[in-house]
Amino acid sequence: LALHENPRENYLKAAESLGLALGLYKSCGLECDIAETCGALGDVYARLAGDGGETDYYTHAIGSYEEALRTYTADDFPGEYADIMMRLGDTHVSLAEMQGGPNDYEEAFKAYGKSLGVYTRVGAAAESETLNVRIGRVYKALGDREAVSNNPDKAIEYYDEALLYYPEDTARREHAASGG
């Protein structure tokens, strides 16, 4: 529903409802429900930030994901942990793109690296490839920033690093799509 009619209003309603559910789960000590709700709340906040360009919502999304990770550990809930880490990395990338801060790119690398480690350990090849592409895109974004800043040597370093993470067919498709 949030995607089709009044998306912002419906996402705000979803955040409110999830907040109420979270309060209930916390009062009952239901750790897995708390973690699941925090993950969903993080998604809603990230969507609100992306739709409205408000960095405060990204901050709320990051906090929600971090709260979910207090329960979803790599050892006890590897799939959930890796998924939340990937979403946390995505949120840091979005925040970096909005604010231009390199610290958020570093946080994205950390989150993506942790997620990739778990997906590699459990043999999730498709998820690992997805993360490699996302890591490559972060390196490319850093290269683009350096190129615009007239620092071609550093830009080339980032671009070379980006190529290490792109599967060959993905790199060809993205190069063709960019008109290259």
Write up what this structure looks like:
Helices cover 84% and strands 0% of the residues. By secondary structure, it is mostly helical. Helix 1 packs antiparallel against helix 2 and helix 2 (31-52) packs antiparallel against helix 3 (55-71). The N and C termini lie far apart (39 Å). 34% of the residues are buried.
Care to give the gist of this entry?
This protein has 180 residues and is mainly alpha-helical. The chain is built from eight helices and no strands. Helix 3 packs antiparallel against helix 4 and helix 4 (78-99) runs antiparallel to helix 5 (102-122).
Relevant terms:
180 residues, mainly alpha
Q: What low-confidence regions span 5 or more consecutive residues with pLDDT below 50?
A: none
What's the Cα radius of gyration? Answer: 18 Å
End-to-end C-alpha gap: 39 Å
Number of strands: 0
Mean pLDDT across all residues, rounded?
Answer: 90
Note the beta-strand portion.
under 5%
Largest beta-sheet characterization: none
> Number of helix segments?
8
Helix content: over 70%
Shape: globular
- What string gives the helices and strands in order? HHHHHHHH
Structural topology:
Layout: H1 7-28, H2 31-52, H3 55-71, H4 78-99, H5 102-122, H6 125-148, H7 152-165, H8 168-177
